[in-house]
Design brief:
heterodimer; A: 518 residues; mainly alpha; Ribonucleotide Reductase, subunit A; two-stranded antiparallel ribbon; 4 strands; B: 89 residues; Phenol Hydroxylase P2 Protein; three-stranded antiparallel sheet; binds fe (ii) ion
């Protein structure tokens, strides 16, 4: 008798159908609207949730299998890094400022993303997005954990890694930029969250963060970061796809959704671009060995790639976000203006800054022929002159923050790169300041939301940011020193110029010890 | 015409995958960067399970791509035999 043929394994499409749609249920003792109370208030109309399909067709069983493999690979490298003094392989300890900024500014966002996608998964009535959001939620907590694990290897040797992912994100004046981006998205509804994080951040902007950054880590000998970065990034293609699916789904479900979606795209593209200005300083100033300029990265990943995306979305009536004209001007200025501000405020920061050297300034001139020599080289020259006289300049106040994006007011007018841009709005008899037309527009559209912003600098000056028991009337009271203490920053070790820092001295001594016998 | 792309980590797993992609997509352009490669292609790019299997000499599940994937651009369509990125819908 013939052997009975084994039943063929389910194909990907069938398996996906069984493992997602087949697992849903209808409510019985409560109406559906009560179970999913957040599904309708934003005005997005959905007629058929089953039209949502994950093009990766990933099911939970495969998800666990591949994620486990990624973790095994990652931790093998981290062990090797720790066992082989991997921290001495980096080009120069200046590089670590970029990593400190990542740990303090980005890793905590991974954790908020984890919570946000868990909430989105809970709040969508459709089972397709629920499964995809669940996977992304688990991915994001993995990102937070693996980043903290990987970077804890640097914490054993260098300053500034001790409180970033916990205390500082809540307190430091420059970290409220990334923090408020995610908080403002999370406090919106589930659909807006998907446009803010899933679409704008993950699809349109994430390449600008991770790809040049990870290449930069590889170029600068940072095996730990390359590895967690690539491990996290391997989830990113799925996240980007979820963001793109989500937007297509909303636009295909009902024509009334278009103006709502367009407004969110305009808003969150601008907010995301503001957050990314921190990355611009990383590419142009913080990497001792450079990969590409911010302007080049912007042109590849935003102008070309984003251009292809918006061409495609045009069939639904979506227009390129309004802020693009401003961005085309800004790409030539952004990193220089922000780095100058960081350089003159690093006595109030948890990482080191430095003035670019002659060779680095030549690189910047070559990459920014229209702007660097004209506007920025003279300012760095002047700062260098002061520093050489032993008078390294630090501004003795903290900068005012934009009510919306919370970036210090440091960027210039679109038509005059020598004039700081300020915009003012009035609401309920109070004045509010924003950094740009983009942010003013967002404020004026939702003042009730943005007047509640917790702006660190305002709070410092109101006296709300000191350790408990501080007496501001005491003899010799120093508000900045008390603020930094409250932020868990030890200025002598964590901030100020890299030149003369303990990171610099230790790295030189340890690397010397690794290559000589004395 | 718009460009789609896919980027992978460079390692022993991806070497044959990249080779298969370049053979199956003669219009694709390889862009080598530190620790990664990015493959750009006008309009569409397809990865075929069979081509990868031929090079590695074992069964291959296209979902294994996810382990070493860095980023993609374009609309994705994946089934048991092909992984396709394109801007035509
Ligand atoms: Fe993430
Ligand atoms: Fe702003």
């Amino acid at each position: 008798m013939d052997m009975k043929a084994t039943k063929k394994k389910l194909g990907l499409k069938e398996k996906y159908a069984h493992m997602t749609r087949g697992l849903d249920w209808e409510t019985t003792y409560q109406p559906k609207e009560k179970v999913f109370p957040q599904a309708t208030f934003e005005g997005i109309k959905v007629h058929d949730w089953d039209k949502w399909e994950d093009p990766f067709r990933l099911t939970m069983d495969s998800y666990w299998k591949y994620q486990a493999e990624k973790e095994r690979k990652l931790y093998a490298v981290l062990d090797a890094f720790a066992q082989n003094n991997g921290h001495l392989g980096i080009t120069d300890a200046r590089y670590l400022s970029a990593i400190k900024l990542f740990l303090t500014g980005i890793s905590p966002l991974e954790y908020v993303a984890h919570r946000g996608f868990a909430a989105a998964g809970r709040n969508f009535p459709g089972v397709g997005p629920r499964v995809a959001c669940l996977m992304q939620s688990i991915d994001e907590v993995r990102h937070a954990q693996t980043q903290i694990h990987a970077l804890s290897n640097y914490n054993k040797f260098y300053e500034g890694f001790h409180a970033g992912a916990s205390h500082q994100i809540e307190r430091l004046w420059y970290l409220s930029v990334p923090k408020s981006f995610f908080d403002d998205a999370f406090s919106a509804g589930p659909f807006e969250w998907m446009i803010a994080i899933g679409f704008s951040f993950e699809y349109v902007l994430t390449n600008l963060l991770f790809v040049p950054f990870m290449s930069g880590a590889a170029y600068n000998g940072d095996m730990a970061t390359v590895t967690f970065g690539f491990s996290a990034q391997s989830d990113e293609a799925r996240h980007m796809t979820l963001g793109l699916e989500c937007i297509k789904f909303m636009l295909e479900q009902d024509p009334d959704n278009l103006p709502i979606v367009q407004k969110w795209i305009d808003k969150w593209a601008w907010r995301g671009i503001r957050v990314l200005s921190l990355v611009s300083t990383m590419l142009d100033y913080m990497l001792p060995k450079r990969v590409m300029s911010w302007k080049e990265a912007w042109e590849i990943y935003f102008e070309q790639n984003g251009g292809a995306l918006f061409n495609d979305l045009a069939k639904y009536g979506i227009k390129v976000p309004e802020c693009i004209a401003q961005c085309t001007v800004d790409k030539e200025h952004q990193s220089h203006q922000l780095w100058l501000t960081l350089c003159t405020h690093s006595h109030a920061m948890g990482l080191h800054t430095w003035l670019p050297n002659a060779e680095e300034m030549d690189w910047l001139s070559a990459k920014y022929p229209n702007t660097f020599d004209k506007y920025y080289r003279p300012r760095f020259d002047q700062l260098r002159e002061l520093a050489d006289k032993g008078e390294r300049f630090y501004a003795n106040t903290l900068p005012m923050l934009c009510q919306v994006c919370q970036i210090p007011m440091l960027f210039t007018e679109p038509d005059d790169p020598t004039k700081i841009c300020y915009r003012e709005s009035e609401f309920q008899g109070e004045k509010y300041h924003t950094c740009s037309d983009g942010c003013k527009h967002i404020f004026d559209d939702e003042p009730e939301k943005y007047i509640q912003a917790w702006l660190p600098v305002h709070q410092v000056y109101m006296g709300n940011c000191w350790p408990e028991g501080t007496d501001p009337t005491a003899e010799g009271f120093n508000p900045l020193a008390k603020y930094l203490e409250w932020c868990h920053i030890d200025l002598a070790r964590d901030g100020g110029d890299y030149e003369g820092s303990s990171d610099q001295a230790n790295f030189a001594a340890w690397r010397g010890a690794a290559t000589q016998n004395t | 015409m718009s460009t789609v792309f896919i980027a992978f980590q460079i390692n022993e797993d991806t070497r044959p995958i990249i080779e298969a992609i370049l053979a199956d997509n003669p219009h694709a352009v390889l862009d080598e960067q530190p620790a990664m490669v990015k493959i750009n292609a006008e309009d569409t790019l397809v990865i075929k399970r069979e081509s990868v299997e031929e090079l590695i000499g074992r069964k291959f599940d296209l979902q294994e791509l996810q382990v070493n994937l860095i980023t993609i651009s374009g609309h994705l369509d994946e089934d048991d035999d092909t992984f396709t990125l394109s801007w035509k819908n």
